[in-house]
Amino acid sequence: MRRHYAKCLILFGRNDEAVTQIERTLELEPLSVPYNLDAGRISFWLRQYPKALTHLNNALDLEPNSVGAHYLLGSVYEKMGNENAAIAEWGKVLSLIGDEGDVSKLKSTFERSGYAATVRLRGEMRLRELDDQLKRGEYVAAGEYVTAYTWLGDKEKAFAWLDKATQERNRFAFEFKISPLYDTLRSDPRFQQMADRVTVAQ
């Protein structure tokens, strides 16, 4: 399918081809939630945030309760500097998955302690979820821990899990190199070393 091909292309640095493929996909099926979501994700990876915003809002017009769209939309708003909107979107994600108590904690922390503290709280919440999944015997990709520790601002643990993530056979080993979610790790020499490791192993 074109959408999968588009994501593969961008992970290998063929950005223009990826955009062509995902735009053609949307021309053929403009009312597809997954296609609009993928278009939003690709635009996010390319740091084309207004374009990502358009695609994700299109997805939400079609499916207002799309957890994936709200989740990514929060990250887009964060990168655009709209902290209030980012918190609102992440609150919607928590509400949709049934964590109303965490929604209240997120909002009260933002009001009381500001955005940076709220992002750390978000990391703590996610870490708790991942640990609970492991206790239930579920598989959790190492990349999920990279994201959680990045939100927590714990670079050492983020890199420890990134080391594991680059050895797993999944898309994250390529995705972390281009995703804005990990920009706070990018200046550390270890980041490029791990990116090079994945490139060599292709």
Number of helices: 12
CATH superfamily of the largest domain: Tetratricopeptide repeat domain
CATH topology name of the largest domain: Serine Threonine Protein Phosphatase 5, Tetratricopeptide repeat
- Main CATH class of the largest domain: Mainly Alpha
Assembly type of the chains comes to single chain
Count the beta strands.
0
What report would you give on this structure?
The protein is an all-alpha fold. It has two domains: 113 residues, Alpha Horseshoe (Serine Threonine Protein Phosphatase 5, Tetratricopeptide repeat); 83 residues. 75% of the residues lie in helices and 0% in strands. The mean pLDDT is 91.
List keywords for this structure.
202 residues; mainly alpha; Serine Threonine Protein Phosphatase 5, Tetratricopeptide repeat; globular
How would you concisely characterize the structure shown here?
The protein has 202 residues and is mostly helical. It contains twelve helices and no strands.
Write the layout of secondary structure elements.
Elements: H1 2-11, H2 15-28, H3 33-45, H4 49-62, H5 67-79, H6 83-96, H7 100-113, H8 115-135, H9 142-152, H10 155-165, H11 172-175, H12 189-201
Helix pairs in contact: 1-2, 1-3, 2-3, 3-4, 3-5, 4-5, 5-6, 6-7, 7-8, 8-9, 9-10
